Amino acid sequence: MKNNDNNQLTAIDLFCGCGGLSYGFVSAGYKVLLGVDNDEAALNTFEKSHPDSKILKGDLSKKETIQKMKEITNVSTVDLIIGGPPCQGFSLTGNRMIDDERNKLYLGMLEAVKEFEPNAFVLENVVGLVGLFKGKVKDQIIADFTEVGYNVQWKILNAADYGVPQVRKRVFFIGIKEGLGEFEFPESIKNEGNYVTCGEAIGDLPSLEHVFGEEVSTYPIPPQNEYQSFMRERAEKLYNHVATNHTEQVKHVISLVPEGGNHKDLPPGVGEHRKFNEAWTRYHSQKPSRTIDTGHRNHFHYKYNRVPTVRENARLQSFPDDFVFYGTRTQQNRQVGNAVPPLLGYHLGMKLFKYIGGKYVKV
């Protein structure tokens, strides 16, 4: 194994965004050497939330980026490469053209795997990839990584099954170097009967009913459950908790949507300009949230007539409260929505120890 002195396995995170997947692996005891992305605001967040990691702003479709990665890390090999190539080309709502260049961004990850020869890799993407073009994209990904010496398994995982208060389904491809075994995905720790709910996740945060555009940094009450205690464990104050000041008309429309409802529950003629599937969706306090997206206009708090704050959505993604997001609020929302939930990353990281060595190191 290629562990360092304290037995931490090393990893590189490609298309890292703000670092949700990295954060999960760091929590499991890995040392993430480098995060690579082309989004400057997301990299700023990554750098500040991963003080032991370096960053590189680069285009992973270019060979010179791989060489820069080697120069920055000063290593020729790592234990693990993780990443989630941008998924717009694979999206059910996107272009879906098979020659979309974004469908080939995983090739940047393939080149990095060939160059660094890790013992394993983790590739995450949207569920729509699995059936896209009758499975051709999925099959090509598996074939390409198999050809360079990896035993590849794939599975659609629901983040809620791993303690994340959000129904978020994504496909994961995990490749183990030939000779090290065949990866078995971690078993669920939750089921539909005991998922962490929205109320359990964010019920302790300030309501912000009469505070708009101003960050509220104090907690009004102590944590009320295990999940809230976990989120607040290392936080001395709140960050990124800023309410949007909606127009009276928008607040009125939101007020007409029942808990757990959406645009279908609105009276005829109300909210007609937004009637797609996720429009005017109010969270339910007794259920996990719907999938957090990169915007902030479609989902609403289960109790208050406003969109969730960046911090509320971060909680629903399992980011702890001491993980601070930087950039404009639009950039912050994009970072949260694009991220792999850290708690899901943690469980994958823990399971991978069985195949690539190492052990949990408390950090």
Description of the structure:
- Keywords: Methyltransferase, Restriction system, S-adenosyl-L-methionine, Transferase.
- Its EC number is 2.1.1.37.
- InterPro entries: C5-Methyltransferase, C5_DNA_meth_AS, C5_MeTfrase, C5_meth_CS, SAM-dependent_MTases_sf.
- Belongs to the class I-like SAM-binding methyltransferase superfamily. C5-methyltransferase family.
- With 363 residues, the chain is α/β, with parallel strands linked by helices.
- It has a domain of 198 residues: Rossmann fold, CATH 3.40.50.
- The protein contains twelve helices and nine strands.
- Strands 3-2-1-4-5-7-6 form a seven-stranded mixed β-sheet, with helices on both faces. Strands 8-9 form a two-stranded parallel sheet.
- The longest helix is centred in the last third of the chain and has 15 residues.
- The N terminus is likely disordered.
